[in-house]
Amino acid sequence: MLLAHRGVWLIPPMIAPAGAWALEITALEISEVPGGCTMPILELMGGSWRRNPRALQDGPSGTVLVVLEELPSDADDPRVEVRLLHRDGDGLRFVGVWPDMGVEWPEVIAPTVQLLAGA
To answer: For the purposes of burial, counting CB atoms within 10 Å of the CB of 33, is it exposed (0-12), middle (13-18) or buried (19 or more)?
Structure first.
């Protein structure tokens, strides 16, 4: 599933599909902005929905998972809580939570995902 791609207007998922537990990030590209701007540009983010958290306990180190929880909101401005998990040698670890995010959530979490994927 393509979550973000530079130059293409995409609306990321705001809820997990029925039966899905988390979104495993499988592709990420970030570029630095010339001129010293501190906010990197998200070029590409993609992922695959996962159904069973137990199966991920034995997965490869460096796996990054996104858990979305739909928040009460109006239809014109959907909101979501984003939780980030990371698999290291000891299993899944909670990394952080971004409460009350809109469709910009992939851009906001991208630097943290990049850091975790390289860990």
So the answer is: exposed
- 3-state DSSP call for residue 96? strand
pLDDT by residue for the chain (119 residues), tens digit each?
777 777 777 788 888 888 898 999 999 998 877 776 667 788 899 999 988 776 656 667 788 999 999 998 887 888 999 999 998 877 889 999 999 999 899 989 999 999 998 75
Distance CA 63, CA 90 (A): 12
Q: Which two tokens stand for residue 47?
A: 């992922």
